[in-house]
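Lay summary

Proteins are chains of building blocks that fold into shapes. Our project writes down both the chain and a compact code for its shape. Here are two examples, one after the other.
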Amino acid sequence: MTLKDITNAQRAEILTQALPYIKRYYNKIVVVKYGGNAMTDESLKAQVMEDIVLLSLVGVKIVLVHGGGPDITEMLQKVGKESRFIGGLRVTDKESMDIVQMVLAGKVNKTLVNYLEARGGKAMGISGMDGHMIDASMKDEKLGYVGRINHVNVAPILDLLQSGYIPVVSTVGCDWQGNAYNINADTVAAQIAGALAAECLIAMTDVAGILRDKDDLTTLIPSLTVAQAAQLYREGVIEGGMVPKVDCCVDAIIRGVKKVFIMDGRVPHSILVEMLTDEGAGTMVTGDDYDENQGA
């Protein structure tokens, strides 16, 4: 079925069913982490931006935190630099950091702002260096200019939200000596969501969610608590690339975020399905004392 097949009455019914969810999130802060392979398809990227604009227009305070790994890799290749990773983190020397800053705070950030504005949104791009929003230091000398977050100053984000903008945050931090640092987008999103006391954090990735069997989509775990996540670690269900993602989810919950969603950013309208329907589109992680009657 396409939109052309839906009658006006059916469209009205769809909007009516979404109303309770819109009311639940109205005037609440929702942080969306967007990055990696979920950003590589231009038509899908446009659709995600449309969804974010829609949520913003119905009163949800969206903060978009983005990465841009594929774009960084592409630019490094163009200048003849090989990408090397340790524990999932990009080894970043001084020259590479200049490129990371240029790509994330420049090309990727402004492209997303442009997408949002072109679809009727009101967006403003900032990096973690603006207003010294993300105070960082070197995480490990072996990684080079990869940052550990020391403090997040969300005042610039709150100012933009107050003025009706969608803040679009690139994940570059800095120290007081003028050094810039490349910081994992999941980590930044979790800490920003915690500092904002966000209603929820949506982590858009390139997997369906947490699977009990990573090769079987039917084993998707729709929801789990922090304690249950710890058990899945022990069982080896959460492993490999999913470990840092779930770590960031747990970190966000510990910092006061009510719920975190891990969802497949490649699925059309996955944000709307998760936030505005009963169906859900990924795995929801909550605190052990979470009351489902208060959540979406």
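And here is the second example, written the same way.
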Amino acid sequence: MTGWELGLVGLAALVIGISKTSVGGFAAMAVAVFATVLPAKESTAAVLLLLITGDVVGVARYRRSADWGLLRRLLPSVLPGVALGAVFMWAVSDLALRRTIGGLIAAMVLVQVWQRWRSRRVAEEAAEARAEVGAEVGVAVGRAEHPLVAVAAGVAAGFTTMTANAAGAVMTLYLLAMRVEKLRFIGTSAWFFLIVNVSKVPFSAGLGLFHPESLRLVAALVPVVLVGTGLGVLLIRRLSQVTFERAALAGSAVAAVALLVR
């Protein structure tokens, strides 16, 4: 591995750490970097171990902020998605894998942008109605409670996390749609990904994705991930809720582009 490649994966490991204690959607950019240096499928196993390192720190820091109601609705549908992703990885080429996941995330970003624009329009129309008639008009902009929403998000998260370690974008879009404030967002994501990523290890091992060279690289990068988690804690203290949501959505969009063009 050349010097510039080592620099790239070092920066990617730092981003993984930052994403685990602040804006989660950015981790998928690190996935794209690793896949440019290592074979795409092998890179998913290396990144997985670095993600678990960050997950442990995230849970230790934000374990009390998790929304277990959301987790109970999401987790049962994740394992089928992981199994489906493992079969998909076995059956398709690296290129098809990247394009599929990037396309799915891009579609979800567009849906989320449209939903947020529509919510603003509804709120503006309600405000105009109150001004005209002097009445209190309620606007429903809270959580989407239909159980199929959580099932679909869980399956999508399982599939994307197994195939490209890209479920951060799925969870980001789901939790933004649920209007989860930033600390509860991070705590819920931390527990979710620790549970899910640990469950993926046997699947990755079964596919033969853990190679001695990549394991040595992971061992060298673990301290970099830990530094990133510290930077993420400092960053999240300085982000407002609005800025946090915009950064998370932007991170998901960048991740989609990275997966489509790499």
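What can we say about the second shape? The chain is about 80% helix and 0% strand.
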